[in-house]
Here is the input.
Amino acid sequence: MDDNVKQYKPTLLRFLCVLTFIWSGLCMFAVISVFTRGYPHIFFSSIPVLDSIITEDTHGNNFYLLTKPVLYALSIAGAAVMWTLRSSGFYMYLGAQIVLLAVPFIFLSHLGINYLLVKFFIDLIFTALFIMLYAFQMRRKQP
Here is the structure.
């Protein structure tokens, strides 16, 4: 491709990527904080939705606390690749999000099925929304 030709990046795609960078980055560092300190840093506990995620993370074992940051990093990497308009980033993001939906069922079963199902459906709403919006934007990446 010629260096003088700029690629068209849909505004919504850029917005979604920025939201993914911020949210997945916060979640990743919050889980790392719980893993390294045994309890969350006060900064992460003060963010409204993130505090409930961190409380849940304190119930996980070390493998759980190592798995989640890797998946969040994969989400960030997928968003970064989508930022450059490559479709492979969508599949990285999709895979990471699907595994993030399943991980609590594997590692947090002691919290009870009712809790896990409520959490799953709430997470599913936002995950499905982002996946649909990303898919729509990746389809229309060319002007």
About this structure: The mean pLDDT is 87.
